[in-house]
Every structure is written in C-alpha cells, then in structure tokens.
Amino acid sequence: MQPVPIDEGAKDRRRIGPFWIEEGLGVVLAGGLFLAVVVALYVVAVLLRPA
Fold first, then answer.
1. Which of left, alpha, beta for 24 (phi over 0: left; psi -120 to 50: alpha)?
2. Is residue 7 part of a domain?
3. How far apart are CA 51 and CA 49, in angstroms?
4. What is the pLDDT of residue 27?
5. 20: which DSSP letter?
6. In-domain check, residue 41
7. How far is CA 32 from the centre of its chain?
8. Cα–Cα dist 18/28, whole Å
9. Is residue 14 exposed (0-12), middle (13-18) or buried (19+ Cβ within 10 Å)?
10. Which structural domain range is residue 34 located in?
C-alpha cells in the first residue's frame, strides 16, 4: 500500500490548512463560536474581578 500524499484524500473530506474536516463546516463553525464565547467570558471575568 502506497502512502497518500497530504494534498490528496477522499472526495467527501475538506481540507482547511493542515486539517482534514470530515464532519462538515458546520461543526467547525460551532467550535469556533464556542471558543469565542469562552474567550469573551474570560475577558469579562478578568475585567470584573474584585480589586
């Protein structure tokens, strides 16, 4: 069995940068939204911490 070059793969998979996305872009966007919410909550917690 020959190795598959990194730029080739199954037709139903998408490549974003070095990552293969098999679940679709919806999962990627949901993960990005979740990460943005966590970062926003962290910033709010830092700004509103007791002195």
1. left
2. no
3. 6
4. 80
5. E
6. yes
7. 6
8. 14
9. middle
10. 14-47
Render pLDDT for 1-51 as a digit per residue (tens, 0 to 9).
Answer: 776 566 566 666 666 667 767 767 788 888 899 999 999 999 999 999 987
Task: State the pLDDT at residue 35.
Answer: 96
pLDDT for 7 equals: 59
Residue at 36 is within a domain: yes
Instruction: Say what the pLDDT of residue 38 is.
Output: 98
Handedness of CA 23, 29, 32, 37 (dihedral sign): negative
| Domains of the chain: total | 1
**Of 31, 30, 10, 35, residue with least CA distance to 20:** 10
Instruction: List the Cα angle 42/46/51 in 5-degree steps.
Output: 155
